[in-house]
Amino acid sequence: MSLIGSLVLVVHFLLLAILSLFGLHRLSMVFRWFKYRNFTPQSPKMFEKLPKITVQIPLYNERLVAKRIVDSIVLLEYPADRLQIQIVDDSNDDTSEVIAERVSHYKLQGINIEHVQRTNRHGFKAGALKEAMTTADGEFIAIFDADFIPTPDTLLKSIHFFTQTDIAMVQLRWEHLNRRSSLLTKTQAVMLDAHFGLEQHVRCASDMLFNFNGTAGIWRTSAIIDAGHWSADTLTEDLDLSYRAQLAGWKMQYLNHITCPGELPADMNAFKTQQYRWAKGGVQVMLKMLKTVWKAKIPLVKKLESTFHLSNNLAYLVMMLDTLFFLLPSLYLRAQYDYINVWWIDIALLLMSSGGHIAYLYFGQVVLGRSKIRALAKLPNLVLLGIQLAINNSKAGFEALMGKESEFVRTPKTGELQKAEHTYKSENQASQGFKNKPHYKPLPPKGAIFEFLVAAIYVVVLVWAVIYQYWFILPFVSLLALGFVMSAVNSFYSHYQLSRHA
């Protein structure tokens, strides 16, 4: 075999090995959960006098949810003289008019609420939060995105964890307002359940570094400033600040038992936009912070865990590189040189990589007490949705590695509110879908044509594998081809359906 041929095989198995490490890390979350499943945050002492809290609601062109969040946030149960509300508005559409009207309405009722506006979007969300803090007078900053609806007692249930003076931030578990709205939202909810109910819980319980999720959390104001304040040099300012604060000596707490419901992206293109921002921002923070993590005086196990945490979005890029550029050549070379019997290496590595993720998603439902049978039934859709994100998130990771900057693109919200696992109801919008959403602007189906082309490549591999009787690879390649076709079709169909009512 030539040097180039040997190199192709080495790279193929190396990429598969990297994928298997990501999968085994996910599997380790499951095993670690059994060790920490009974962990509950230390029962806090009670503040003798409640501290002052500033609640910040950052938003940009969110007219479909602006009224809802303002009307909800004023219902927070907290002493009026201890609560300041800031609607941090960067909008350049009629959202600002909606907010101005509601803020004026509640000011007349004596509520301490402000409409904080800027003349530019410098720094995007991070810049808006940083500028708003110049007029914030709270010892603590509670942040809720415009599509989240905290329950009235949210602050009272969570503020007392800050009696521990080294706690910088407490993160609440996300729940989902429109969980049962569609197959897409049901599948997204399962993915997020695993992140919160399993991953965040395990990292917090085992004293690993973890992250604020950008919303449904409370920060100590002095910790934000001490860590270097909000920074806009990545698309995930929440992850960035979390690592800087913890490496500066602060601790954070995850409260699995306190939930805050939010709205999931309602169509495939909006979902891809959100995932693109999260994936690219995650890799940006990896490039920014990983060297600092390894230089920090923290245990080796924390450094390793943080490495997986910050680099996990690169798994998509690794998968695409292998399956598009090295899988078929490696199969061809093995057929030519009679190395076909090493197929078991592929199988073992593929099972470790995919099996770990599947177990992680399944147990994400189990740990929250959901039906095990329903969790199993959802696994095929979860696998396909993961494949559908591959090109989108690979592009995000590649652009981050190349240093290409991009705008912070918000995830469009519909204002749809459906009864999920909590009895959250909208007065006028429950179950109305998009027909009553004339101002919802669907995002274009970016990348859908390329997804069709990639699916065609996998079909070629599939046909080649059938001709040469490489049966072991058929299930994996079939799933990849099906996933990309579904992603492209869903993107075009969602755009078409939503455009009809836009």
TrEMBL record:
The chain crosses the membrane at residues 6-27, 314-335, 341-363, 447-467, 473-493. Pfam families: Glyco_tranf_2_3. It comes from the Bacteria. It is found in: Golgi apparatus membrane. InterPro entries: Nucleotide-diphossugar_trans. GO terms for biological process: cell wall organization. It is a multi-pass membrane protein. Keywords: Cell wall biogenesis/degradation, Glycosyltransferase, Golgi apparatus, Membrane, Transferase, Transmembrane, Transmembrane helix. GO terms for molecular function: glycosyltransferase activity. Its main location: Golgi. PANTHER family: GLUCOMANNAN 4-BETA-MANNOSYLTRANSFERASE 9 (PTHR32044), XYLOGLUCAN GLYCOSYLTRANSFERASE 2-RELATED (PTHR32044:SF80). This is Cellulose synthase. It comes from Pseudoalteromonas fuliginea.
